[in-house]
Automatic annotation (TrEMBL):
One of its GO terms (biological process) is fungal-type cell wall organization. The lineage of its organism: Eukaryota, Fungi, Dikarya, Ascomycota, Pezizomycotina. Gene3D superfamilies: Ribonuclease Inhibitor. InterPro entries: CWI-Assembly_Regulator, LRR_5, LRR_dom_sf. Residues 346-370 have a biased composition (Polar residues). This is GPI-anchored cell wall organization protein Ecm33. It comes from Aspergillus campestris (strain IBT 28561). Residues 1-19 form the signal peptide. Transmembrane segments: none annotated. Keywords: Glycoprotein, Signal. The keyword Metal-binding does not apply.
Length: 397
């Protein structure tokens, strides 16, 4: 009993020291490999782990399985490698920015992260998440050397923002079923192919300058679905029934859009400057709560199931198509806002007065005279199309 009387306090003190060595909720600052080795006996680090700017070379976090806070590094330009072979979970943010020499990231056990924020990592070509990250809130990857998203194996995500990764040619997130925030792909390799085979639901999705985008299971979006500068000829969403604003703009090779089950657009519907599109057919489209704005070089438009367009209607093309069907929809009050329809027009324009087809001009309002200022919504995807279609909603009921 005497031994226990003195032994227990000693053990308690030793435990306290051990806990303190594994963090106390504050930020642990790492300047070199020796600093990391102090935590090799810890399974869990309590608090944040931060690699400081002066760190350099190869850094390895051994033994640690979980970080209860964030794992961050800002501007550590001389760090070439980061590894954490046993690390399976980062509770908060995994943030790496400005590690311009980082060429190796090896975290083979990592599966769960609060969020991923990787920016300005030009030498990093692969993620090194061998098991695959299956649980993360948001993922932002910008200006890296990554060639693919291999290692991102999410079933659900908030925001998925993949921009300015000039070498990225493949983005397969095969397990992803739902995205609750903005999904944005822009400024990556023009040969980028995106595959989301199991994605059934999303909020906002915008795609710019990609060579292929496939999401055959997509059924419903609560926000915008937009495509700018696509490099492929055919787009298909066979199971999509409902979306917010729907935009196809400036897709120079696009010759076919297939959405055979689309019934409802909770916003505006714009198709403009897609010169290879000659026929537009949306056989089950019934409801458009915003405006319809089609301009280009098409010869045929079929909207046979249309029952209600609460906004305006603008349809202009160089093609020789008849407006009779749409004139009747206007007289029957299916189209409730302002109305304009012209076929065989040499200078077709979109609802905002901008040129609706390449090689045409509309004086001071044409895109050719306004340079890169195409449409505000193309530059601010999260804002939707409200501003674009607002003028055509003035007569909506």
């Amino acid at each position: 009993m005497v031994v226990l009387k003195y032994a227990l306090p000693v053990l308690a003190a030793a435990s306290a020291v051990f806990a303190a060595d594994c963090g106390s909720g504050d930020t642990i600052k790492i300047e070199n490999q020796s600093d990391l080795e102090k935590y090799s006996s810890c399974k869990t680090i309590k608090g944040d782990l931060k690699i400081e700017k002066q760190a350099e070379g190869e850094l390895s976090l051994n033994g640690v399985q979980q970080i209860d806070g964030s794992f961050t590094s800002e501007g550590a330009g001389n760090v070439t490698s980061i590894s954490a072979p046993e690390l399976s979970s980062i509770k908060e943010t995994f943030h790496l920015n400005g590690l311009t020499s980082l060429s190796s990231l090896k975290m083979g056990s990592l599966t769960k992260v609060g969020s991923i924020e990787f920016t300005a990592l030009p030498q990093l070509q692969s993620l090194g998440f061998e098991k695959g990250v299956t649980d993360a809130g948001d993922v932002h990857i910008a200006n890296t050397g990554l060639t693919s998203l291999d290692g991102i194996s999410l079933k659900q995500v908030g925001q998925l923002d993949i921009t300015d990764n000039r070498d990225m040619k493949k983005a397969n997130v095969e397990n992803l079923k739902n995205a609750t925030g903005l999904m944005n792909f822009a400024g990556n390799s023009e040969s980028l192919k995106i595959s989301l085979p199991n994605l059934a639901g999303a909020k906002n999705m915008t795609f710019r300058n990609v060579s292929d985008a496939s999401f055959p299971s997509l059924e419903k979006l609560s926000g915008q679905l937009g495509f700018w500068g696509l490099k492929f000829e055919t787009f298909s969403a066979p199971n999509l029934t409902e979306t917010g604003d729907l935009v196809f703009k400036g897709n120079e090779k696009l010759s076919n859009i297939s959405m055979p089950n689309l019934k409802t657009i909770n916003g505006g519907f714009q198709i403009t400057r897609n010169d290879e599109l000659k026929s537009l057919d949306f056989p089950k489209l019934e409801q458009v709560s915003g405006a319809i704005d089609f301009s280009g070089k098409f010869d045929e438009v079929s909207l046979g199931a249309l029952e209600n367009v609460r906004g305006g209607f603008n349809m202009q093309s160089t093609g020789n198509f008849s407006c009779g069907e749409f004139r009747k929809l206007r007289s029957d009050k299916v189209i409730r806002g302002s109305y304009k329809c012209e076929g065989g027009k040499s200078n077709p324009t979109s609802a905002d007065g901008k040129s609706g087809a390449s090689g045409t001009s509309n004086g001071k309002n044409s895109e050719s005279s306004e340079g890169a200022s195409v449409m505000n919504v193309a530059n601010v995807p999260a804002m939707g199309m409200a501003a674009v279609f607002g003028a055509l909603l003035q007569y909506a009921l």
